[in-house]
């Protein structure tokens, strides 16, 4: 049996994996080599290196383990037609992403950009608008594993947390939950709005200009889910019209964000290059999901953690 990694883990992670599964042939490359695809049984990938042709070349492929939460760039139909099982690492991003989101919120509440700017200019300037996170209300759109972790950290600051999901069912560390259909009426309740939505046909351009008009003028909007939940031109108009206080964006419709995009020119937006989930422990946490799943799969059990419905996109 052959398992092909299209990235190479650190030696301290790779060597224990090989020792734990001595009867498996592991191949590790820093990028996908099409010559390896013909006889592999399992592919471990970040997902962005797959297309219909490569799925066709991998005629023996039975399972794709995606070391990422998003699978929107993968050839869904081709994978489904070949009956290939897909699972991912949903949930491992929650610690670094929640910390990133909290850092951005605190930075804006406590005027850290103002402090850094004046330090660079050598100015002693106390004329900043400071506010507290304590006592705020935060709305998390799509409160899954990451959203729950964000809720846990926010509640430590005595923030009231609201969630919006498809079902309206309760989520850990969320004080009250509504259905996504009720989003328009919920938006005015919060001065922090966080989108953690995945990219699906249902979520594409879900947030419109009218949604932002429902938000409070002092709202901090953060998008750390997927960039196509709101059209770029809508975001630009929202920020130019100053409907909200500030936007923090880690994801975009087009990545990298083009240099000529108007978002770069605005002073009420923070642009992060889609790396809020990055951490020195990323691959370590990915393998913590992969290894138990591999043991189950070798025993004939395909009910793996984070098994995905590829055509639904999650």
From TrEMBL:
<feature type="domain" description="D-isomer specific 2-hydroxyacid dehydrogenase NAD-binding">
    <location>
        <begin position="102"/>
        <end position="275"/>
    </location>
</feature>
<dbReference type="InterPro" id="IPR006140">
    <property type="entry name" value="D-isomer_DH_NAD-bd"/>
</dbReference>
<dbReference type="GO" id="GO:0016616">
    <property type="term" value="F:oxidoreductase activity, acting on the CH-OH group of donors, NAD or NADP as acceptor"/>
</dbReference>
<keyword id="KW-0560">Oxidoreductase</keyword>
<protein>
    <submittedName>
        <fullName>3-phosphoglycerate dehydrogenase</fullName>
    </submittedName>
</protein>
<dbReference type="GO" id="GO:0051287">
    <property type="term" value="F:NAD binding"/>
</dbReference>
<keyword id="KW-0520">NAD</keyword>
<dbReference type="InterPro" id="IPR036291">
    <property type="entry name" value="NAD(P)-bd_dom_sf"/>
</dbReference>
<dbReference type="Pfam" id="PF02826">
    <property type="entry name" value="2-Hacid_dh_C"/>
</dbReference>
